[in-house]
Design a protein that fits this description.
Distance between the termini: 86 Å
Strand content: 15-25%
Number of strands: 10
Number of domains: 2
Oligomer: single chain
Largest sheet: 8 strands, mixed
CATH class of the largest domain: Alpha Beta
């Protein structure tokens, strides 16, 4: 039996010397594992005589029980010690504010918010959203919209042209969302009531211009559409968008190739408060959009008879009106991906703009 006594002393020394849970696990495997020292002794029970099994076998099983209990006790001690050490090392300042959830921290970009606001306004008037490709042909971007040959917009210093294809045709990054007007007229018969939000591209960059910017256009085509209808639509839009009870607008004669007559629209405002412009009051005027009756040539390009149908259209820069409404001083900040700017000017993702709940609430 002296070998069992020596084995017990050796194992208990190893158990007491184990410094962490990994070490005590190694002792357990060495003693009680498949090829452990005690497991090897247990394998000899089958070869013993009944008398030896009663004495030596009982001693081996007693040793197994004692070692198992000692290992379990030591493992508990080491686990408790590890937890205590971790608690001392990993402190938490309970006075710090609770970190907000991702849904609370995230922000909607002002351009996305403006698109949602405009969609809510015009959807209430019965308009639908239309979209078109960013890469356009010269026909849809210029010719179908009554731009004559030699017009400045067709020049390289204004427009991003692609290299000529095998047919010598150069596609362009669309300079406005107006090509969608022609595509919509080609695709379906009047009455047409659409708005067209989207990206546009021109070679210009400063505090109020960007090579890539956003526009929204509207188009109405019917047998009886007229300037009075257009004025009412634009007034209702401005009142809802700028969230004021009334607006004063003035229409100045202008020129656009795709409308005739054409107008620049100014809205009465107050600029005395710095970058934030107050609409519906004051003595100042600010141009916000261009509009007009759809040119007969554009109706023909869309497959409609100008003697039977007429329409009106308008367009404005989304980035510009976002700057006006929310007091943003520099257009370039829209595209700088600055999280601090977005945190300040962005909108909470679950606050959807509605006419009855408030567009920018």
């Amino acid at each position: 039996m002296s070998d069992l006594v020596e084995l017990k002393e050796t194992l208990f020394l190893e158990i007491n010397a184990a410094a962490d849970e990994a070490a005590i696990e190694a002792v357990r495997v060495g003693a009680l594992g498949k090829k452990g020292s005690i497991s090897e002794l247990l394998k000899t029970l089958g070869t013993m005589t009944p008398e030896d099994r009663q004495t030596r076998g009982a001693a081996i099983n007693a040793l197994k029980t004692e070692v198992t209990e000692a290992i379990a006790s030591r493992k508990t001690e080491l686990r408790d010690a590890a937890i205590e050490a971790r608690l001392k090392a990993e402190t938490v300042d309970v006075s710090l504010p609770v970190r907000s959830s991702p849904a609370e921290r995230g922000r909607i970009h002002p351009i996305s918010q403006i698109v949602d606001e405009i969609t809510a306004i015009f959807a209430d008037m019965g308009f639908s959203i239309a979209e078109g490709p960013d890469i356009e042909t010269d026909y849809y971007n210029f010719t179908a919209l009554n731009f004559p040959e030699g017009h400045p917009a067709r020049e390289m210093h204004d427009t991003f042209f692609f290299p000529p294809d095998e047919n010598g045709e150069r596609k362009v990054l669309r300079t406005h969302t107006s090509p969608v007007q022609v595509r919509t007229m080609e695709a379906g018969a009047p009455p047409i009531r659409i708005i067209i939000p989207g990206k546009t591209y021109r070679q210009d960059s400063d505090a109020t211009h960007s090579p890539m910017f956003h526009q929204v256009e509207g188009l109405v085509v019917d047998r009886t559409a007229n300037v009075a209808n257009m004025r009412w639509v634009l007034e209702e839009f401005c009142k809802a968008f700028f969230e004021v009870d009334s607006v004063t607008m003035r229409f100045r004669p202008s020129f656009f190739p795709f409308t005739e007559p054409s107008f620049e629209v100014d809205i009465q405002c107050d600029r005395s408060s710095g970058p934030i412009v107050k609409f519906g009051e004051g003595t100042d005027w600010m141009e916000i959009l261009g509009c007009g009756m759809v040119h007969p040539n554009v109706l023909r390009a869309g497959g409609l008879d100008p003697d039977e149908y007429q329409g009106f259209a308008w367009g404005m820069g989304l980035d510009r009106i976002a700057m006006l409404k929310y007091g943003m001083p520099d257009l370039r900040d829209f595209f700088n991906a600055d999280v601090r700017w977005l945190s300040h000017y962005g909108f909470r993702p679950l606050d959807m703009p509605t006419l009855f709940g408030g567009l920018s609430a």
